[in-house]
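Hi U.,

Before I forget, here's the chain from the pilot set. I'm dumping it here mostly so it's searchable later in email.
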Amino acid sequence: MPRRGLRCRKHRSGLWEVRPYIRYPDGRKVRQSFYGRTCEEALKKAQEAVVKARMGLLPMRDSRTFQGFAEEWLERKAGGLSAKTLANYRRELGYWFPYLGPMRLQEVKPLDIRRALDELTKQGIGPRSLKKALEHLRAVFKEALALEIVHRDPTAAIRLNLPSRPKAGRALEPEEAEALLRAFDAWPTWEVGMALRLCLALGLREGEALGLKWGDVDLEGGTLTIRRAWTALGGKGLLTEPKTASSRRTLPVPAATLERLKARWEYLLSLGGTPLELKEAWVFPGRDPSRPLNPHSLAHALRKITARLGIPHLRVHDLRHSYGSFLLANGAPLELVSERMGHANPSITLNVYRHLLGHERQAWVVDPEDLLSRPRPKA
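Structure:
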């Protein structure tokens, strides 16, 4: 039952709303809305706010806008983020600015957020981007709540109904992989063809392949080490740290791929380069040899190759995915696959390749009758 003086009504958003007057210590009386999925939930929030106001525990009026505080929050986060991740955060958080930006932080209500989400959906913003944008919005209000700038989190009542996550990219059939490797080797630009080969033959991320220097390649030991990545950002390339600590890894290079790297090394030496100079050179230089290839070069070449071979559309990342699939299909332990792929932990590998592991589980069937029929060892 509603408490005296508090009336609960169904809001057009589908939530229940209670609008009590809140008295602040400075004498101001302000009517505020509190929402809940049930009438009782909304009433509880409103009653708690009334009590806190009487005790002087509610935040005083703050003139900061949502956009102003969100940008402050982003600056505080910037130190622990890579340049590419920071750019993504800025873009995703910026989706809210046209709708919530000028509003005072304390005035943002669940309905404002719901309307903004509806508009962003109409604009064609994808489910994954909306999910990330809402995560950042929640983080902003979580900090505002912790700093006692707001007395409630308007994102708490927001639910984002997203389609189920699509499966990982298509893994190649062995015949397709064989045809692609031949096409990579025949590609007119060695740098592009070889970078694509490394993505398929070693499971490298595109940026990891492009970030290789000759000093990262141990031609005698037959390994290469991932120390950096060259990624796309704003139409240009950006040198970054590996994605995670686990992404820094040393990998064995398959014999056929190693022979091609050795041949290229010998060719570069024949042009007059010294081993010391070449160690600092990019394995896959672009037109400007001081910078790696444009990150979009590989996708452009892969589109042409798959079209010519009649292979359904592939992303460069699907080459990496195929490598992981081949390992698991050939009985490699999950932990080993996780290490080779540079995943932060095996649970990520499990989530990505769950469909393959499901088939594997079905093959492991133990019939108790078989156990009973086996001869027992003699004592």
